[in-house]
Specification:
CATH class of the largest domain: Alpha Beta
CATH architecture of the largest domain: Alpha-Beta Barrel
Radius of gyration: 23 Å
Structural class: alpha/beta
CATH topology of the largest domain: TIM Barrel
Largest sheet: 7 strands, parallel
Strand order of the largest sheet: 7-4-3-2-1-9-8
């Protein structure tokens, strides 16, 4: 499938930040999934839920959490400034998750952040959009089609719900300025768990008619012609979205992996936070495989990202400040991602990201595929590098003791780029 201009522009950004945030942060349980009640999309799950029963919140209680959600410490310009320091090029916010709560001032519902009985009382989506636009940061929208709060959803009156969905999308597309990327979440055709297809007996085929998707996407193209749209409205659109894993290498179709920094999407009180080295590895593996990486954080009910998560993102930002030119605006190749790592390229320069050693010695051997080197390869990360070209093969010797266990980066310039296939 040929990449669209919208998808190509998104791929230039390479690294994003996702905010899964809404009143679920009040109790520190998973966003939407902890709301007990019917989940028609999910088959063979106890209590119609995808979480352990001990994590469930009765729907009658869950639906009142917004009355304790005040976001009093949420400072959108300060957050965007941090995101820039952390190396992010775009930021998503959950404007409406499966629980139906609107994190923007929608005219279509009273179940929203600006409701009179919601202490926040502010359009948090607008604040973030304005801050992103002012700082030159890409603004991204997450908007779930499933809505377990709406009375017409997946009933005999589902057509009324579809009209509601379209109207909300129009509000966001026409009232919040330029949108870099749009993340639908129609539960991937009702058949996927953490981004992997269900076995055939449990698979439910994605149905565009469920959302009147063809008409919806056509309207979105008119409202936001430069916006990249993901595939979860049952149409391919511009990019794919594997979640909680780095996607398979694919240089023909734009893709974006989203992985939580914590061990759930929304805020929780006890956290197991991934290391900066793990996040850097995900960024590199995504870029060398042809995709973007987006790390997810869950602010608390006040709008604060936990300090231990900020410390990790600070360290990732320092790495990107030094080596981000090997990631941003690049494309994967010419050598495919493999056991040892992979490479990124821009114009006539290739950056080899040596993540691990697949061989028993410290030499990486790369067929040149007709490529002609210009000058000598250069090691950007600390250490020593020796190279030789023999019989059309580039030999690179990087002593094992010089490898930091995360990423050794070798810059190679070419007069003629390698070609394979």
């Amino acid at each position: 499938m040929t990449a669209t201009p919208q998808g190509e522009r998104l791929m230039d950004l390479r690294y994003g930040l996702f905010l899964h945030w809404n009143p679920s942060s009040v109790v520190g349980h998973e966003i939407s999934w902890s709301r007990e009640g019917p989940k028609r999309e999910i088959m063979n799950k106890p209590r119609d839920s995808d979480v352990s029963p001990r994590l469930g919140v009765p729907a009658a209680l869950y639906d009142t959490l917004y009355r304790h959600f005040n976001a009093s410490r949420f400072d959108a310009p300060a957050l965007v400034a941090k995101a820039r320091r952390w190396g992010h090029r775009y930021v998503y916010i959950t404007t409406k998750h499966h629980d139906g709560f609107a994190m923007f001032d929608s005219a279509r519902t009273d179940y929203k952040v600006t409701a009179p009985d919601c202490p926040a009382g502010r359009d948090l989506t607008r604040e973030l959009a304005d801050a992103c636009h002012a700082a030159g940061m890409g603004f991204g929208v997450y908007h779930s089609q499933p809505d377990w709060h709406h009375p017409d959803y997946r009933t005999e009156n589902h057509d009324r719900y579809v009209e509601y969905l379209h109207a909300m999308v129009e509000e966001l597309c026409t009232g919040y300025g330029p949108i870099a990327a749009w993340w639908f979440d129609g539960l991937a055709g009702d058949s996927q768990v953490i981004g992997r297809p269900a076995p055939p007996p449990f698979e439910r085929i994605a149905d565009p008619a469920r959302w009147d998707a063809e008409a919806l996407i056509a309207k979105m193209r008119r409202w936001q012609p430069d916006m990249a749209i993901n595939e979860r409205c049952a149409l391919p659109c511009d990019f794919d979205t594997p979640e909680q894993r780095v996607g398979d290498a694919d240089t023909g179709r734009p893709w974006e992996s989203t992985i939580t920094l914590d061990d759930q999407w929304a805020y929780r009180f006890q956290r197991d936070v991934k290391s900066a080295e793990t996040v850097i590895g995900h960024i590199v593996d995504a870029a060398t495989g042809g995709g973007n990486f987006v790390v997810n954080v869950g602010p608390d009910r006040l709008g604060v990202i936990p300090a231990e998560q900020e410390r990790v993102l600070d360290r990732v930002g320092l790495w990107l400040d030094r080596y981000g030119h090997t990631i941003y605006g690049t494309r994967a190749g010419p050598w495919p991602r493999w056991i040892w790592g992979g490479c990124t390229a821009r114009d006539d320069t290739v950056w080899l990201h040596v993540r691990r050693w697949a061989e028993l010695d410290d030499t990486l051997r790369l067929p040149l595929g007709g490529g002609v080197l210009r000058g000598e390869p250069r090691l950007l990360t600390p250490g020593r590098l020796r190279h030789a070209v023999e019989d059309g093969v580039l030999h690179l010797a990087l002593p094992l003791e010089d490898h930091d266990g995360v990423d050794a980066i070798v810059e190679v310039a070419f007069d003629a780029m390698p070609r394979f296939g």
